[in-house]
Amino acid sequence: MNGEHQMPDAVALLTEALYAAAAASRRVGEMIARSQGQTQARWQLMFVIADHALTVAQAARRLGVSRQNIQRVANDLERDGLIDYLPNPDHKTSPLVTLTTVGRSILERVNAAARSAHRAELSDFSPEEVHALRQQLQSLTASIHRYQQAQAQEIIDTSPNS
pTM score, two decimals? Predict the structure, then answer.
């Protein structure tokens, strides 16, 4: 049998639960964005440029996705009049992406719908429970980042060129 039917360990069960929660959250996010004629990708880009104009590359880094993906989304948003490209005084070939008045209005409506959904989703939890869960997830994320950095350093330390 070689352990084929063993119970998964606690970390595997936690990871499964996190993936399930993330998938459910993405589905709700898509539903919310769709209610305003948007996609979640469009919403996310509008959200990250709402307070500060960014280049496509900067927005991609903040969202953890490829620059090419964000460029496609930005081009669609520009075509629909929701964003503008502005000259970038620091880099002539990388314009800044900013919301138009129409884009800001749509973002506000999507965000309002999201706030309402979030209140409903978390109605079974006390504010203290939500705060504690957030802190635990932040701690888990920090732990994963530390592991990732250690693994990257180990690869560097054991590479033939080091």
Answer: 0.78
